[in-house]
Amino acid sequence: MQQTAVVQAARILMQYQVDWIADQSPVKIIEKSRRIGISYAEAADDVLYAASAQGANVYYISYNKDMTAGFISDCATWAKAFNAAAGQIEESVIEEEDKQILTYTIKFDSGHMIQAFTSNPRNLRSKGRPGERLVIDEAAFVDDINELLKAAMAMTMWGGQIRIISTHDGADNPFNELINDVRAGRYDYSLHRVTLDDALRDGLYRKICAVTGRVWSAEAEAAWRKATIDRYRPNEDEELFCIPAQGGGAWLTRALVESRMREWPVIHFNGTQEFNNATPDLRKRIMGDWIGDVLQPLLKFEPGLRHALGMDFARTGDLSSIAPIEIETNLHQRIPFIAEMKNVPYNQQLQVLFAICDRLPRKSGMVIDSRGNGSYVGEAAHDRYGSLVQRLMPTEGWYRDNMPSYKAALEDGTLWLPKHDGLLQGHRSIRLIRGVPRMPEATNKEIGHGDSTMACIYAHAAACLQRMQIDFTAAPQLPRGFDNLGATGSEMDEDTLALVESRATW
């Protein structure tokens, strides 16, 4: 297919579909809203891949017959649109011990084929010739997804590709566990996420109007969105917004957190009313004495190791907590102590923060909670240490991206904490909120040490920053679209474009 035809195909798809196709990672995963056309886009890419002499066979697995038949029909439509030489759809049955698996196959003149299965075939282990691709659609609902993935990953040894597509089916589902493992850095897979609102921003409802003959307006789109959400209630978060239904209980077990604690100190300074009413010079001297007597003996860091720091800020009521972290040569991390302050003025908090930070060898990152009044401390730290400081105003997305890696470090035994009951209770208070692990707002006031837990989480995030100043030359930006797909063929005519658009039923 000529590049012009590829560009025309890109006109039919929305940007999130184009982004999915353009990602040619060996293993890529997408958590998505229902009915946004990712499988349709995947069918286009699979036809291009199988029809190319440089491509290979494509195997598709879903959990029901209708989905499989719909996918192979989309492939046939794209094959015609791309003018890719292909045979008719062939149906056959695989006999396996206790079941029959229906398959659909399209063969191309390239010598490759697209073969779609209605469920997980055991003979998948025999697949995996160089370059072959496996697509698992609605993976959260496929039988025995763990065994399927175990067999599938062997395909990558000879340059094969894995594409995993699904909406969520619960926080404990292996699909969600896989996503959390990817976010935790356990697997170097590419991860995409497209919610209903993401799709709408990229023109989903406009596309629906174009295909169905409706007239688009902002008011009509808002009404359609509301009607769609109402239709999926009470499961709209999971079905449309990529938030897996949550289970009950704590996110971190007592046994796990306790097993990662060592006899290291948690020190505490309480700002009494007398202290707060003292003159600035007197407060500075009092805090200086505490630093010299209590904090200074702990500032014994290994000079050859990288160090980072996390701080959770509070002025009154809650605690301000500072957690330095040491990164050992084997990349294990240890928080040798935590400094807590309650009801302490800004300048004295900065005294403590600077006393610790100034002594950290090979500083590689600091994450400082800079919400609200914390912006003063974050700004002062940034003035002193520059780009090493991330002034964090955490969002739900930040927790979603960073909390899995923190849990993984505890589970893997690569993160060690001070032994302290309040710190344990703070870790045990983390809950899944809208499918994202985070500290409930009331926790800090209830147990007083949720702040120190957050300082540990920020410290772990800071240890992963590895910030440094570098020189670089920006590479030319590639055009958005079907870049580097390497397709060949002929240009689509208007009738073919209309046919492909008519198949885009969302």
Structure description:
The chain has 506 residues and is an alpha/beta fold. The chain has 2 domains: 3-195, P-loop containing nucleotide triphosphate hydrolases (Rossmann fold); 254-463, Nucleotidyltransferase, domain 5, CATH 3.30.420. It is built from 20 helices and 19 strands. Strands 9, 10, 11, 12, 13, 14, 15, 16 and 17 form a 9-stranded mixed sheet that branches. It has an 8-stranded mixed sheet with strand order 3-4-5-2-6-7-1-8, with helices on both faces. Helix 5 links the parallel strand 6 and strand 7. Helix 3 packs across helix 4 and helix 14 packs parallel to helix 15 (374-385). It is elongated.
> What is the CATH architecture assignment of the largest domain?
2-Layer Sandwich
- Helical residue percent band: 40-55%
- Kindly identify the CATH topology of the largest domain: Nucleotidyltransferase, domain 5
Number of helices: 20
Helix-strand makeup class: alpha/beta
Q: List segments where confidence is low: pLDDT < 50 over at least 5 consecutive residues.
A: 443-448, 481-490
How many domain units?
2
- Assigned CATH class of the largest domain: Alpha Beta
User: Beta fraction of the residues?
Assistant: 15-25%
Largest sheet: 9 strands, mixed
